[in-house]
Design a protein that fits this description.
Helix content is 43%, strand content 19%. It has 14 helices and twelve strands. Strands 3-2-1-4-5-6 form a six-stranded parallel β-sheet, with helices on both faces. A six-stranded mixed β-sheet has the order 7-8-9-10-12-11, with helices on both faces. It is globular. It starts with 6 loop residues before the first helix and ends in a 6-residue tail after the last helix. The mean pLDDT is 91.
């Protein structure tokens, strides 16, 4: 990763007092870990700080959020928080459509908006932006920011940053696990992170009901395009009952992607009647980021997402049409 000029961001952080931090809907470990690391820095500088998110808190990250007051809110409450804040800090997305209740009110915000993100694409967020697609995670960028501030990182902040790193690198095994990422991970371990304990806190939180729901969702999995693409579906009734978080979805996608000869795994989640969140994962040969962008979404080469209206059958037909040209042998 090339050196980042943090000067405009540093000036904003130093010259304002009230900060509202947010991330994308249904936050993952990178979003939440980055929020908490930046929250702890600002609080230590005597600033007033609130984290405001849209979605549902995940059990997987309770060890991070138990002592941090994260507000989960709808649009009216978000509007009040935006009126209170002097600065809006948006982490792990530059896509205004993925900001939920905050995104619906952001056009009326009068102060500076700062976005720090590592995704390749952005959609409609008018902000002072640090966007570094070659970075492994937003946590890597927040680590770099804290080092630019010459701010000492304590064990709690190190745990939040390590959670960010390992969430978006698949525990340091994905393509963007660079030497720099490994050096950051080593630094955080030296500060006090215990990787084994952290892995257990994030992943060893499943119930028997989680297992049952996981199996039921995998029962919907089926191959298309000569078994090179696997698709599973979460219907709206199951979504309302189960509320799978981003990590649960990741496990389902990875299970399908482990099958041979699957190159792309897709999960269709019906969040509202005939409104689907599309999650893509690729082994690497197929650029699912471009596929998502063509459908109004975004993400990375190997991991991306979009939202589409229509039935699961209609959306699957659209997906097959878009993907078929990428599998000429099919």
């Amino acid at each position: 990763m090339k050196p980042i000029d943090w000067t405009p961001i540093l000036e904003i952080l130093k010259s304002h007092q009230r900060f509202l931090i947010t991330t994308h809907v249904e936050p993952d470990g990178d979003g939440i870990g980055s929020e908490i690391a930046l929250y702890r820095y600002l609080l230590g500088q005597g600033k007033e700080v609130v984290i405001c998110n849209t979605g549902h808190p995940s059990r997987r990250f309770e060890f991070l959020t138990q002592q941090i007051p994260i507000e989960w809110m709808d649009s009216p409450k978000a509007k009040k928080r935006l009126l209170w804040a002097e600065v809006l800090l948006v982490l792990d997305t530059c896509d205004v459509t993925r900001l939920g209740s905050i995104g619906k009110e952001v056009d009326n915000f009068q102060g500076p908006i700062v976005a720090i993100d590592h995704h390749l694409f952005d959609h409609g967020l008018d902000a002072i932006t640090i966007r570094v697609p070659e970075a492994s995670s937003t946590g890597e960028l927040i680590y770099d920011l804290l080092r630019a501030l010459e701010h000492p990182i304590d064990a709690h902040t190190a745990t939040a940053l390590f959670t960010s790193l390992v969430t978006d690198t698949g525990w340091l095994r994905f393509e963007k696990t660079s030497p720099q990422v490994l050096r950051i991970a080593a630094d955080l371990v030296e500060i006090g992170v215990q990787p084994y304990e952290l892995f257990s806190l994030i992943h060893d939180v499943k119930s028997w009901n989680d297992l049952s729901e996981h199996i039921q969702i995998l029962h919907t999995a089926h191959p298309v395009l000569n078994e090179q693409v696997a698709i599973a579906v979460i219907e709206e009734s199951r979504y309302r009952k189960y509320r799978p978080d981003s990590e649960a979805a990741e496990e389902i996608l990875n299970t399908m992607l482990a099958l041979q000869p699957v190159e792309v795994a897709i999960l269709l989640t019906e969040t509202q009647p005939e409104e689907h969140r599309i999650s893509f994962r690729s082994r690497g040969r197929i650029d699912v980021g471009s596929v998502a962008v063509s459908m109004g979404g975004g993400g990375h080469h190997n991991s991306s997402g979009a939202f589409l209206r229509g039935s699961a059958t209609e959306i699957e037909a659209t997906l097959i049409e878009k993907l078929s040209s990428l599998f000429p042998a099919s």
